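Q: How would the structure tokens look for this protein?
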Amino acid sequence: MLRKLVEQLSREKSFVRRLPSDFLSTPLFVSPDAQLKYLKPGAEAFDKELLNVALEHLALGDIVWDIGANVGVFTFAAASLVGTKGHALAVEPDIWLANLIQKSTRLQANEDLSIDVLPAAVADKCGIETFLVAARGRASNVLAKAGGRSQMGGH
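A: Here is the predicted structure in token form.
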């Protein structure tokens, strides 16, 4: 019951968090509407495994695509690692989340990061499909043809 209340109160709310120092403490807007985890203190707010993938596999000058970028944690972590000669593309079909990523790119501290945002879904064919925005956290958004999940409650 408390979780549901927090989910409802955090709908479309955002605030700035900073990535860990390995990623130059890069700031970005996050939202508990995307994942309640963003309410946790410090580095616990971010998926350690996801950030480790960036640390282990990215180098200066790399080009990175973040498919299903959510709020852009991987996008901004990657952009901080690939430097000015590299580039990150955030692909996110949820327009609200894509706008949040775009808002993060406009933060003064991020002006040297090379990031583009593409508000689109990725699928096995081209076309127009119905996109379900999950009622219980945008991390569960899905294309309607892919089928829903028990925690979605999409609308």
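The first strand starts at residue 15 and ends at 18.

DSSP finds four helices and seven strands in the chain.

Upvote if useful.
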